[in-house]
């Protein structure tokens, strides 16, 4: 698994659903990582979008910060025109983040 590939996003999505359930939360904690989610939306006559930014911060060693962004774009009628998602390691080691995610994945089995 690499940060930003399909398996990465499957694990992240499952973690978010497991932690927040049906009611979106803005802050929660999973296995030593503090998560925060922000949503930004715009709706106009010709287009609209929603951007969801989720940031995970592990303070204890080895520490890291991971930001996951999902963008949902719509036309003026509300029809989806483009969905994008990407992730960025802001601090720490990619391998440590992947290792943490793999440990979480085993909890789903």
Find the count of extended strands (DSSP E, 2+ residues).
5
Helix content range of the residues, please?
A: 25-40%
Alpha-carbon distance between the two ends: 17 Å
Poorly predicted parts: none
Shape: elongated
Count of helices?
A: 2
- In N-to-C order, the SSE pattern is HEEEEEH
Biggest β-sheet, characterized?
5 strands, antiparallel
Q: What strand line-up does the widest sheet have?
A: 1-2-3-4-5
Proportion in β-strands? over 45%
Number of domains: 1
Work out the radius of gyration: 15 Å
Q: What structural class do the secondary elements suggest?
A: alpha+beta
Mean pLDDT: 89
Describe the structure.
The chain is elongated. Strand 2 (33-43) and strand 3 form a beta hairpin. It has a five-stranded antiparallel sheet. It has one domain (6-106). It is built from two helices and five strands; from the N terminus they run αβββββα. The mean pLDDT is 89. The chain has 109 residues and is of the alpha+beta class. It has helices at 6-20, 94-106; strands at residues 27-30, 33-43, 47-58, 64-75, 80-91.
Q: What labels describe this entry?
A:
109 residues; 2 helices; five-stranded antiparallel β-sheet; alpha+beta
Short synopsis of the structure:
Helix content is 26%, strand content 47%.
Write the layout of secondary structure elements.
Layout: H1 6-20, E1 27-30, E2 33-43, E3 47-58, E4 64-75, E5 80-91, H2 94-106
Antiparallel strand pairs: 1-2, 2-3, 3-4, 4-5
Helix pairs in contact: 1-2
């Amino acid at each position: 698994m690499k940060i930003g590939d399909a398996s990465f996003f499957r694990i992240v999505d499952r973690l978010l659903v497991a932690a927040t359930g049906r009611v979106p939360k803005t802050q929660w904690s999973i296995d030593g990582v503090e998560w925060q989610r922000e949503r930004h939306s715009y709706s106009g006559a010709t287009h609209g979008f929603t951007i969801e930014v989720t940031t995970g911060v592990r303070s204890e060693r080895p520490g890291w910060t991971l930001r996951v962004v999902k963008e949902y774009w719509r036309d003026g009628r509300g029809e989806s025109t483009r969905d994008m998602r990407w992730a960025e390691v802001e601090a720490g080691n990619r391998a440590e983040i992947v290792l943490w995610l793999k440990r979480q994945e085993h909890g789903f089995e």
